[in-house]
């Protein structure tokens, strides 16, 4: 059980320092990477067009590059997601956060959802794949099915949210996801995590990674 006494270094080790705004410039990404190195976060999470910039900025550091794929709707062709994944890794990404095909899940096209995720996993090779299920658009049963499909399709994580829909991560959703995937699979909470209290609550609910844009502020709270 984590408390407000968690160390700054330990908390940073759970964080993907995130910048996914559509108006983000290369200079913004370079600043994000410099912050990630200074803060000690595990990774930066960015759009695929910025992977090359981030990879160059992080050269020689331990900070990983996470690229989103099919973001934020999850609705591109599976082949397009697979190709985006391939190019992101070629440009330096070591992790992929792909958005599930939400409409297919809603209409119970589970085979299509699984094949969509598997196409990304195959293109990712040894890179870790996280599946964003966009919990705010799903019923609890749909969340369970989405998590089970992600596991069976060969992903390594499930992730709550893009941060671009109606709502972000909740403790209840993280608990549900953890219950479905078991203790060894990854769960990433993202969207709306802006303070130390919320970050700790997500970890205690079962998250093993946090997608946050307010990393500096949260870690400053932990430092205090």
UniProtKB/TrEMBL annotation:
CDD domains in the cross-refs: DeoC
SMART domains assigned to the protein according to its UniProt record, in alphabetical order: DeoC
Annotated keywords: Cytoplasm, Lyase, Schiff base
Main location: cytoplasm
Pfam families in the record: DeoC
EC number(s) per entry: 4.1.2.4
Lyase recorded as keyword: yes
Pathway: Carbohydrate degradation; 2-deoxy-D-ribose 1-phosphate degradation; D-glyceraldehyde 3-phosphate and acetaldehyde from 2-deoxy-alpha-D-ribose 1-phosphate: step 2/2
Active site, UniProt feature: 97, 159, 188
Signal peptide: none
Catalytic activity: 2-deoxy-D-ribose 5-phosphate = D-glyceraldehyde 3-phosphate + acetaldehyde
Superkingdom per UniProt: Bacteria
UniProt-annotated location(s): Cytoplasm
Function: Catalyzes a reversible aldol reaction between acetaldehyde and D-glyceraldehyde 3-phosphate to generate 2-deoxy-D-ribose 5-phosphate.
Protein name, as recorded: Deoxyribose-phosphate aldolase
